[in-house]
Write a structure and sequence with these properties.
Blueprint lengths: L5 H6 L6 H7 L7 E3 L5 E3 L1 H5 L8 E7 L9 H14 L4 E5 L4 H5 L7 E2 L2 E4 L1 H5 L5 H21 L6 E6 L3 E3 L9 E3 L10 E3 L1 E3 L4 H8 L3 H10 L1 E5 L4 E3 H4 L2 H8 L6 E5 L4 E4 L14 H10 L2 E5 L4 H16 L5 E6 L1 H7 L12 H19 L5 E6 L6 H13 L4 E4 L1 H4 L5 H13 L14 H12 L4 E3 L2 H15 L4 E4 L19 E10 L4 E6 L18 E2 L5 E2 L3
Parallel strand pairs: 3-16, 3-17, 4-15, 4-16, 8-11, 17-18, 18-19, 20-22, 21-23
Antiparallel strand pairs: 1-2, 2-14, 5-6, 6-14, 7-12, 9-10, 12-13, 14-15, 22-23, 24-25
Helix pairs in contact: 4-18, 7-8, 7-11, 9-11, 14-15, 15-16
């Protein structure tokens, strides 16, 4: 019997009109801004009126270090949310919006999979409600206004060699990483080196995801440092007088997007910074709104716990005053085998020894999440080829760490497949054992914050950087940014900066290549190793297999 693809399963979904989903949350019609029949934005003025309601419980879903074998973090987030609803807990899910870059690149979509998906799947993966386009437009408006200011006399005395604000596009396009702009003669401006990042790496995306409301959004945008003068004084977006127009472009996008799962449970999908080059969490607005509307809120943080969970705890929770009650670490037998040294081609063969070896990666993630004071459970996202002995090896490794490992079969069964996991999550939450705290204090020097993350969470022996980087950190501190958290930009595939080092490497060195100030978002981006803020397409991109069939339906999305 052939297995249905994700898009086939999504297309067969029995969706409710979005108004019915909103009604279940007691959202009035006049607070709903529909985008068709099955997706809508929830008005910001309605959300602001929920402040007096008590908060629900916040659950984070994170994962082991990703491999080509797949882990299924978003799928588990959706499956767990469905499972919690099945056992009688009013639950919402908060997810990130997919970027077109990985959709057409190598990763595919980001709406879950199998029978644990959010729908309408094609809409969510392709343009959705236009939020990313608004973010890209706001970002590039600021780029245009910086160059325009320089062209028309440069009253602010911007040093064109020190313009830090690049341009963005929501696509993997390595050819745009470094460019020269304003070529073609005097009428086109002053030529200078420039470049593009992917939209999800934009500081506007980070600000969008951390802003509390429209007023906070504009204030944060105004604080963006876009360039320096010749005497090294910062020039901000407010100095350029761009903050007002940029906020206008983002005013509709800032309202969170309401959709549903295959089991008709509510989900907010809003914002989407990458976790390897940004902070990897959905918007604070959506998360806080969901906490006012539901008993339980299940959210995710991108890639492995060393990136997504760390930034969720140290940046999002710190900035938004959130306190998670529990965390779920997703692992698969297949991925653990790869961390244990097995090639992708041999993953179908039973190999308990490799699973046991690969559990070193799981163990470090468990210890890391526990170090934030949050209780942990391991969700084994089961594949049909996993043997009982391999699953037992994961459970034994988890038991040694003092946590449970619970089989989750949501991909094949939906919420039914996560009822045991959901029940245990409720037990953890109701035990009241969470004592969440970030891993470093605001007052710690920036270099020490970087070293703390690298040594305590990555297992590194030291962090190295040249004098230019250290001088830059000192300058950030002198300018008043020393209390910012750090946003580590490194490969997602390893605890080290070498993507080929699987498992749990220790004693490695973390090289810091560059540091960037995100004054509006309120953190310092620390670029480690060869990480790129503009990905490239693989040799055979997913776009090669995406097309419209004879019925006008999308094929090839996954």
């Amino acid at each position: 019997m052939s297995v249905k693809t994700d898009i086939e399963i999504a297309r067969e979904a029995s969706m409710k009109r979005v108004g019915a989903i909103a009604e279940g949350l007691k959202i009035p019609d006049d607070a709903l801004q529909p985008y068709g029949h099955y997706k809508a934005k929830v008005a910001l003025d309605y959300i602001s009126g929920l402040e007096d309601r008590p908060d629900g419980k916040l659950i984070l879903v994170t994962a082991i270090s990703p491999t080509p074998a797949g882990e299924g973090k978003t799928t588990t987030t959706v499956g767990l949310g469905d499972g919690l609803n099945r056992i009688g807990k009013k639950t919402m899910m908060c997810l990130r919006e997919p970027s077109l870059g990985p959709c057409f690149g190598v990763k595919g979509g980001a709406a879950g999979g199998g029978y644990a998906q959010v729908v309408p799947m094609e809409d969510i993966n392709l343009h959705f409600t236009g939020d990313f386009h608004a973010i890209g437009a706001a970002h590039n408006l600021l780029s245009a206004m910086v160059d325009n200011h320089i062209y028309w006399g440069n009253e602010l005395r911007i040093d064109s060699r020190r313009v830090a604000w690049r341009r963005v596009v929501d696509m993997n396009d390595r050819a745009l990483r470094s460019i020269t702009n304003s070529l073609g003669g005097v009428a086109n401006g002053y030529p200078r080196e420039d470049g593009f990042d992917i939209t999800v790496a934009s500081e506007i995306m980070a600000i969008f995801c951390l802003a509390k409301d429209l007023k906070d959004l504009q204030e944060r945008i105004g604080r963006i440092v876009v360039a320096e003068t010749r005497d090294r004084q910062p020039i901000t977006a407010k100095d350029i007088q761009a903050d007002g127009a940029m906020t206008v472009l983002l005013k509709d996008a800032l309202a969170p997007n309401l959709v549903q799962t295959l089991e008709n449970n509510p989900a907010f999908i809003h914002g989407g910074p990458f976790a390897n080059i940004a902070h990897g969490c959905n918007t604070v607005i959506a998360t806080r709104a969901a906490l006012k509307m539901a008993e339980y809120v299940v959210t995710e943080a991108g890639f492995g716990a060393d990136l997504g969970a760390e930034k969720f705890f140290d940046i999002k929770c710190r900035k938004a005053g959130l306190s998670p009650s529990a965390a779920v670490i997703v692992a698969t037998v297949r991925a653990l085998k790869m961390h244990g040294g097995v090639d992708k081609a041999d993953l179908g063969k039973e190999n308990v020894a490799a699973v046991t070896a690969g559990c070193e990666n799981l163990a470090r993630h468990v210890r890391n999440v526990k170090s934030f004071g949050v209780p942990v459970v391991v969700a084994i996202n089961r594949f049909s080829a996993d043997s009982d002995a391999e699953v037992a090896a994961v459970a034994a490794a988890a038991e040694e760490l003092g946590v449970k490992a619970i089989l989750a079969n949501h991909w094949a069964e939906g919420g039914v497949g996560t009822e045991e996991l959901a029940t245990h999550v409720v037990e953890m939450v109701e035990s009241g054992t969470s004592q969440f705290a970030p891993i470093y204090d605001d007052s710690m020097p920036l270099w020490d914050k970087i070293s703390t993350v690298a040594t305590k969470l990555y297992g590194a022996s030291e962090v190295v950087a040249d004098k230019k980087v250290r001088d830059q950190l000192r300058q950030f501190t002198d300018l008043g940014y020393g209390d910012f958290p750090v946003c580590m930009a490194k490969t997602q595939y390893s605890f080290s900066t070498d993507p080929n080092l699987k498992g749990a490497p220790s004693g490695h060195v973390v090289p810091v290549r560059e540091v960037r100030l995100s004054a509006g978002a309120g953190f310092i981006v620390v670029v480690c190793g060869d990480i790129m803020t503009m990905p490239g397409l693989p040799r055979v991109p997913s776009a090669n297999k995406i097309f419209l069939n004879d019925e006008g339906l999308v094929e090839g999305l996954f």
